[in-house]
């Protein structure tokens, strides 16, 4: 993939850009094998990869520059900024949307936030696209609500320029810290979610709900989990750290009892909407802490699927799962290091299958799916 920003030294996000994709995969597989070297693996499945560019469905842009000439991109460690409006990781349509957002920022008077001076209003611009119908969600992360009235006043102009914008919000993040978003979300449009469809399963993307950023590879990840689970004698399944329900909704059958737990209420609202649309009767999605909820249960499900954040599921949940001893555990992870640590803690389980998914090309990061059998 050719990238002028990388070639000119303005952006260093894609650390492995100069390596061919095949070599990137080899390095990732070698890393994963080294982490699991002391744990016998029944089957190493072939790694899954996708497109090398235009694969991201979301852009997280730091806003800098001036209100008249805003820069949407990234702030490097040396303090320099790079405009990523033409980043080749994004769909081609994003460049045109950013070209409209920049004058919109000036029309509203959204002064970019200055980190050093702790002044200004606009911190980030977050843009998400549905691969299902091309609709867009745009979120302005602001220091305060001071410009909300003006933002609403100018919104018709923005929507006329970019009619595929379905969901527009303002997120209020008042603290001077490297935090992407705050708790308060102000909806500026009647529609509140984007519709996505993976493998015939409807999924919904709302503000403040996590959604995979590589739809092509994420679709393959969910389909693989579905195939693994449906090949097992499973009537009752837990989906912990379930997000918008992608894994559980793929794996569930009309007769299966599925419980999905996720701490983010917005994500649970998405999962509930999908379950209703699919007509699943024995599904229960709850907005709770996964570890706290699980460790308070008495009944033993046939299978527990976990998809934790980078920190992993941790010692407490590992001890509980070891003692409770479900027949199967499916572990999905974006951090193979913590996953390997957790699997070592899960006494009495063997690794039946492992598969790597190259969710993040041109970087050292990857997703991995593992099936554990008691």
From TrEMBL:
S-adenosyl-L-methionine binds at residues 212, 241, 262, 307. [4Fe-4S] cluster binds at residues 3, 11, 14, 87. Its EC number is 2.1.1.189. Keywords: 4Fe-4S, Iron, Iron-sulfur, Metal-binding, Methyltransferase, rRNA processing, S-adenosyl-L-methionine, Transferase. Pfam families: tRNA_U5-meth_tr (PF05958). GO terms for molecular function: 4 iron, 4 sulfur cluster binding; iron ion binding; rRNA (uridine-C5-)-methyltransferase activity. It catalyses: uridine(747) in 23S rRNA + S-adenosyl-L-methionine = 5-methyluridine(747) in 23S rRNA + S-adenosyl-L-homocysteine + H(+). GO terms for biological process: rRNA base methylation. It comes from the Bacteria. The active site is at residue 334. PANTHER family: RNA M5U METHYLTRANSFERASE, TRNA (URACIL(54)-C(5))-METHYLTRANSFERASE. Belongs to the class I-like SAM-binding methyltransferase superfamily. RNA M5U methyltransferase family. RlmC subfamily. Catalyzes the formation of 5-methyl-uridine at position 747 (m5U747) in 23S rRNA. HAMAP family: 23SrRNA_methyltr_RlmC (MF_01012). This is 23S rRNA (uracil(747)-C(5))-methyltransferase RlmC. It comes from Mangrovibacter phragmitis. The lineage of its organism: Bacteria, Pseudomonadati, Pseudomonadota, Gammaproteobacteria, Enterobacterales.
């Amino acid at each position: 993939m050719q990238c002028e920003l990388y070639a000119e030294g303005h952006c260093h996000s894609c650390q492995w850009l100069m390596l061919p994709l095949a070599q990137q995969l080899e390095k990732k597989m070698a890393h994963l094998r080294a982490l699991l070297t002391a744990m016998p693996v029944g089957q190493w499945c072939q790694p899954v990869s996708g497109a090398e560019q235009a694969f991201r469905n979301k852009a997280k842009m730091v806003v800098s520059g001036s209100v008249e000439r805003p820069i949407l991109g990234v702030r490097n460690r040396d303090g320099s900024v790079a405009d990523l409006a033409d980043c080749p990781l994004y769909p081609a349509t994003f460049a045109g949307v950013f070209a409209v957002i920049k004058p919109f920022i000036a029309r509203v008077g959204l002064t970019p936030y200055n980190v050093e001076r702790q002044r200004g209003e606009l911190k980030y611009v977050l843009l998400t696209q549905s691969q299902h119908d091309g609709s867009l969600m745009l979120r302005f992360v602001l220091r305060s609500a001071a410009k909300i009235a003006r933002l609403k006043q100018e919104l018709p102009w923005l929507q006329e320029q970019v009619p595929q914008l379905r969901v527009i919000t303002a997120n209020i993040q008042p603290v001077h810290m490297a935090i992407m978003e705050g708790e308060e979300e102000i909806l500026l449009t009647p529609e509140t979610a984007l519709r996505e469809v993976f493998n015939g399963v409807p999924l919904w993307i709302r503000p403040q709900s996590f959604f995979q950023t590589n739809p092509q590879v994420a679709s393959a990840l969910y389909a693989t989990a579905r195939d693994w689970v449906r090949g097992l004698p499973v009537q009752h399944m837990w989906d912990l750290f379930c997000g918008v329900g992608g894994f559980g909704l793929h794996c569930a059958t009309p007769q299966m009892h599925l419980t999905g737990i996720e701490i983010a209420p917005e994500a649970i609202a998405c999962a509930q909407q999908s379950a209703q649309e699919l007509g699943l009767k024995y599904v229960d999605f709850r907005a709770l802490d996964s570890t706290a909820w699980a460790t308070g249960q008495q009944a033993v499900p046939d299978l527990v699927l976990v998809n934790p954040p980078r920190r992993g599921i941790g010692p407490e949940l590992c001890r509980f799962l070891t003692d409770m001893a479900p027949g199967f555990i499916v572990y999905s992870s974006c951090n193979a290091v913590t996953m390997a640590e957790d699997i070592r803690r899960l006494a009495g389980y063997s690794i039946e299958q492992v598969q790597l998914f190259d969710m993040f090309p041109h970087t050292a990061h990857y997703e991995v799916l593992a099936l554990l059998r008691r």
